[in-house]
Amino acid sequence: MAESHGGGCCPPMDLMRSEPMHLVQVIVPMESAHLTVSYLGDLGLVQFKDLNSDKSPFQRTYAAQIKRCGEMARKIRFFKDQMSKAGVTPKETLDKDIDIDLDDVEVKLEELEAELVEINANNDKLQRSYNELVEYKLVLEKAGEFFASAHRSANAQRSEIETEQVNEDLLEAPLLQEEKSVDPTKQVKLGFLTGLVPREKSMVFERILFRATRGNIFIRQSVIEESVVDPNSGEKAEKNVFVVFYSGERAKSKILKICEAFGANRYPFSEDLGKQAQMMTEVSGRLSELKTTIGAGLDHRNILLETIGDKFEQWNLKVHKEKAIYHTLNMLSLDVTKKCLVGEGWSPVFAATEVQDALQRAAVDSNSQVGSIFQVLRTKEMPPTFFRTNKFTTAFQEIVDAYGVAKYQEANPSVFTIVTFPFLFAVMFGDWGHGICLLLATMYLILREKKLSSQKLGDIMEMAFGGRYVIFMMSLFSIYTGLIYNEFFSIPYPLFASSAYECRDVSCSEATTIGLIKTRDTYPFGVDPVWHGTRSELPFLNSLKMKMSILIGVAQMNLGIIMSFFNAKFFKSAVNVWFQFVPQMIFLNCLFGYLSVLIIIKWCTGSQADLYHVMIYMFLSPMDDLGENQLFPNQKKIQLTFLFLALVSVPWMLLPKPFILKKQHEARHQGLSYAHLDETDESLQVDTNGGGHGHEEFEFSEIFVHQLIHTIEFVLGAVSNTASYLRLWALSLAHSELSSVFYEKVLLMAWGFNNVFILIVGILVFIFATVGVLLVMETLSAFLHALRLHWVEYQNKFYEGDGYKFAPFTFTLDGNEDE
């Protein structure tokens, strides 16, 4: 499948074989190295090899520059976080090719970070003071109310005592006055503390205070209706104002320690009502001043962040681009003269001219006196795999790559997967009503793909959007197979003509086909609608879909074996052609290819032969007469011939190949002693990872065991894989029956009640069941089964999938990476 490419960078796509690759070496002068790597990153067609893998990151040439770029990237992430918190959106850069000096960016970032950090620190201090004053104001209000009520109750009690003293006996008055004259000297002055405590801790706080002071306190708490911002944590919290009365310094010290442990903020408070009013006035004045100051600070901070946002994208792209360039430069080895860098990497053959042009432009633009050297190296190392895909074929290629990346220039299964994958899905999902629903959902994704591709979608939505063209093909094929099955939400419609059959009488609608008379030509496309609803519907459709599944499976397995032939021809392996492809084709088709032919003959002739009996006794009693199961003349002789060829093909696969490989290895190993002297230099340019096989020992036992396993796997797999394709029949039947159940047991049953409310509920249940079960769960189930049929039954016939992807150095994704 070699392809001759004309001029230009973009030759026609060839999905069958990966792009031809070569290992290139570039020798770049130090003064133009940076610009050269930058231009190659813009080109995105060179995958560099790490020539300094034995060195740690700190021992490499450009470790200091990477550290410097990492520090700038940290500052950019800091700015991004600050803008996100402030709700500032970075301005999109229309012209991303503006050249910015990295030193200027570094200086600017340093200045802006210092200014922003200082603004944040000042704002945090002001905000903390503001939050403390808010709490202090609440303490003044709540504690002031408590002390005011206490003063009022004390005055009321004092007036009552004075009234009682007037009515007392005058003889006792001197004694009482004497006692009262002594009491003031014995009175104890109570101290008190005020503050706020988190509401969830208030009960525990009160209990601990009571126990620590052995009940020698009096505490009052007042609930604050609105949440307040805690000065220490900066988070909103629900709090209570408390006032604790105590006696003695020991009790005070205990209370202070408990307040500190519970995170209770304490504030000073005066008993004097005049001082309380004065403090309230001062706090209110300071709060208004701080609010104005904080607002001005936030305005200044937003202006600074908007200034940063104008250049943010440019700085971000520049820093990440520089970091990627220096990472790549560290993969290049330093020449012994320390005047140039030597790099090696993989590149597509068609890109050789583009790479050389980039090297030349870099040398000219950097005013280098010496140009870069570009040369192709010969190597036996396995090149990476590179397929040129578009937005339509990418999803199908990713389905194949999820199983394993194709070996270099191996036949690519995705060429046929583009058609066979949605077709096998549709065989299991055949309903043109459901197919139209899938098509409408997919068309929404396709028509809005430009807008949706720039948005951040959820995980499931992003997965569906990435596979929108796969789902699009699946929906088209589902409509096609639905028309063949003649099912629209399980309802048959005579779209292409009237039914070919009519009933003899009224009672034959529930009878078998014996009760039907053929009055017209055969229904032109798909299943005749008269089959639906009859007793023979299930046996008829079961027989049809089961045989169809076997035909499809044998056809796809044959396609896989034919692909192995093209692989063998491409890699010039005659051994694989004659001792793998030929016996595999004989074995599969002498058994299951023969079964497929019998199915087609039975359909064409209308024979009543039992194919199960034919295939089973082909092995158990091959010499017996077929009797009524004979479908064509000389069938017994042909069966014996096929059986003999199938048995012969097993040792044909097993025995010759290991001995031929051993003989080829001995001949190749013997020929190395007579190599030409002029090939000595080239022999040094082989794979350092052991890519050359010339000097490896040939382990015959390993090769033989491997071939034995491969033979057994194919022989048993031919049976199991054919049976595995019966899942097409099983899932198609399940989908049809589920759809029929939802239609008959939900929609028709709701219609039969002649009640509008029940009908609406029935329609809603039918819609949700159809979408949730048939359009989501059944779609996923059929998708996974189609995936398994491709990965296991189809690809294992030819696909090795032990390659590795081509990962060129490019700036396409670097702008969004925060390494």
UniProtKB/TrEMBL annotation:
Subcellular location: Membrane
Coiled-coil stretches noted in the UniProt entry, renumbered to this chain: 95-129
GO MF, one annotated term: diphosphate hydrolysis-driven proton transmembrane transporter activity
A Gene Ontology cellular-component term: plant-type vacuole membrane
Record's keyword terms, sorted: Coiled coil, Hydrogen ion transport, Ion transport, Membrane, Transmembrane, Transmembrane helix, Transport
Pfam family, one: V_ATPase_I
UniProt GO BP: proton motive force-driven ATP synthesis; regulation of auxin polar transport; vacuolar acidification
Main location: membrane
InterPro entries given in the database record: V-ATPase_116kDa_su, V-type_ATPase_116kDa_su_euka
Membrane topology: Multi-pass membrane protein
Top-rank lineage group of the source organism: Eukaryota
Transmembrane segments: 423-447, 468-485, 548-566, 578-601, 638-655, 756-777
Keyword Nucleotide-binding (UniProt): no
Transport keyword on record: yes
Function: Essential component of the vacuolar proton pump (V-ATPase), a multimeric enzyme that catalyzes the translocation of protons across the membranes. Required for assembly and activity of the V-ATPase.
The family this protein is said to belong to: Belongs to the V-ATPase 116 kDa subunit family.
Name this protein carries in UniProt: V-type proton ATPase subunit a
